[in-house]
Specification:
With 248 residues, the protein is mainly β. The chain has strands spanning 12-13, 16-18, 21-23, 28-33, 35-36, 39-41, 44-46, 51-56, 62-64, 67-69, 74-81, 86-89, 92-94, 98-111, 114-116, 120-125, 133-138, 141-143, 148-149, 158-159, 161-166, 172-174, 177-179, 191-196, 208-210, 213-215, 221-223, 236-237, 240-241. The chain is globular and about 50 Å long. It starts with 11 loop residues before the first strand and ends in a 7-residue tail after the last strand.
Length: 248
């Protein structure tokens, strides 16, 4: 892999890592670069400075039944993968800046995770630099993501967001419990589910957020009203911006 350009000339294939505790490393706990069908299962990644478990330039990654905590960026990360086809399932991720972070990656599913006590529960981010989306997000419990992360050279201040879709396309967010995500400090966005443009202005398009329980957030749903094809009702929610999204 050319680490300057991100180009992969040959993939490592079918590697499995299971049963490890990885702690206190200055960058990553467990990382895939240019991997196909890597499996990270039943590991624990604690207090690694950047990411707990992460995959770059990879496809078919499976991150299943791990515990990640204490990462200064994300407990679990999938990025730089236009054909990610990733599965992030049944993990417990807490006390990170971001619980689950998907950036510049398309295609996959995020299911059955416990995501709590982070600054942001889940962040799907386009414009950094490419598109993001086409993930199925269902059956997750995203709760009490109330920590405050101060602004840094790499990120704005963040706090109190459950599931954030920034400039994404084709997301399917259904059957999740998104509860009690309230900011405790300054944040560029907050809410149970946030659907807004990416930092470079790409509007969210064709995202579906329906059939979720989204309660006691500030607000439960926030949408910047940009983009097209976004379906944000019905959900079990009480507060929204604009105010019509939770009307029954």
């Amino acid at each position: 892999m050319d680490f300057d350009t991100g180009e992969v000339s040959g993939y490592v294939q079918d590697v499995s890592i299971s049963g490890f505790t990885v702690r206190n490393f200055p960058e990553f706990g467990i990382v895939a670069f240019g991997a196909q069908d890597a499996k990270f299962m039943k590991n624990r990644a604690f207090d690694n400075d950047e990411y707990g478990i992460t995959a770059f330039g990879s496809s078919g990654t499976k991150i299943i039944s791990n515990v990640t905590s204490g990462a200064e960026e994300a407990g679990i990360y999938v990025g730089d993968s236009p054909q990610a086809q990733a599965t992030v399932a049944a993990n417990d991720t807490y006390d990170n800046a971001l619980g689950i972070f998907v950036r510049d990656a398309l295609h996959g599913k995020v299911v059955g995770n416990q995501v709590h006590d982070n600054c942001v529960g889940m962040l799907f981010l386009a414009d950094a630099p490419g598109p993001a989306g086409e993930f199925d997000v269902h059956g997750n419990k995203v709760q009490d993501n109330t920590r405050a992360c101060e602004a840094s050279e790499e990120a704005p201040p963040l706090s109190g967001a459950g599931i954030a879709l920034l400039g994404t396309r084709g997301m399917e967010v259904q059957g999740n419990h998104v509860l009690d995500n309230v900011p405790s400090g300054p944040s560029v966005f907050s809410g149970g589910v946030v659907v807004i443009s990416g930092f470079e202005g790409t509007p969210p398009t064709d995202n579906t957020v329906i059939g979720n329980t989204i309660l006691r957030n500030e607000p439960d749903i926030f949408w910047d009203q940009l983009g097209s094809g976004n379906r944000l009702t019905p959900n079990n929610c009480e507060t929204s911006e604009p105010g019509s999204l939770c009307q029954r």
